[in-house]
Amino acid sequence: MRCWSWTERGYPIPEAAKTQANYVEGGRAGGGTDGDRHLLIVDRDRWLLYELFATRWTGQRWEAGSGAVFDLSSNSRRPEGWTSADAAGLAIFPGLVRYDEAARGVVRHAMRITVRRTNNYVWPASHRAGSNAGALPMGARLRLKSSKDLSRSPAYIQNIFRGMQTYGLIVADNGSDMYITGVMDPRWNNDELNPAFHGLTANDFEVVRLGWR
User: In the chain, what are the domain boundaries?
Assistant: First the structure.
């Protein structure tokens, strides 16, 4: 993998990310050297989303394995064959679960999910990162079955699961099987979240028509 100096290409990484934790995924100041180390930056004035993968501060410059810039005023996808900070070529930020939205009601958007292996890609993904026969493609859409009993989970977790039943999940990268990502927030309660999510299996989901536009 070749690393690039992303600040030279216009990625506005905050100065504080060099020395303060939790700017880069994984919690280490400057990103460290292991893990996905995603870094997401929103320019609210220019309506731009910057996303980086394998981000690290070398002591002299920022480097990353890949990156992408998304125009938030457009629904255009990445060009065919292009990746992003996620293998599928999709934006990470829209698929993250936020505590505030789960606390106030049903999460009203598709959620980012990773699976162990993939096979090619379908719309709206633009990039492949696997050719494992029988595996789902990048961009595949899953939906939690309406028959799944959610009543045992706390209300805010039920709101996440109801979002999965309505808006579903989208395969965005290779990684841990059936792994959902949330925005870092001290209000998340892992003692509640982990048992609830462990109560879901792949058999609780159905595949929405592949490549649907």
Answer: 4-71, 93-207
